[in-house]
Amino acid sequence: MNELSPNDVVITQADAAESGPVRDALEGRADIMAMTQATHDAALKPADPGGLSHGERAALAARIARLNADEGLAAHYATLLEEAGADEAVSAMADPAYKGGGDTRRAALIAYTDLVSVYPRETAAADIEALKTAGVSDADIVRLSELNAFLAYQIRVIAGLKLMKAMA
Predict the structure, then answer these.
(1) I need a labelling partner for 98 at 20 to 30 A (CA). Which of 19, 37, 66, 113 fits?
(2) Which residue ranges form the domains of the chain, and what is each CATH number?
(3) Are 158 and 14 a contacting pair, CB within 8 Å?
């Protein structure tokens, strides 16, 4: 059986590091938690980020966390953003009020991320075409979709663990 990592983002954000019923449940699923952390690392810090830089990934992740009212998780991603050494324009992407500052590609990444994060059922083929029109490659559209999917999962797992902890 795997052991829980002391650096696991989900466990840290759910405040489930201390012993108790939620921690016990997580220890029984250490393999799932390890895979979740590995997916976090692959989505945010892949060896080959392609055309979606580590800074852009962290900024969009912080944005998604904020759109989902999870400031603790947003702070985690803000730290990754800082570690990535992102410039001011990329860093601005973490703010849900920022819409791209006139940069077509950045605006398209933000519009797609916002839509998928808040209204996923409303996403249509035209939204993918808008990314392509803005110069986002097919491979980077897949990378962006993977990032959005992972954040949706991570946010819900954290929320569920917090609820479990509150009810324990």
Answers:
(1) 37
(2) 9-167 (1.20.1290.10)
(3) yes
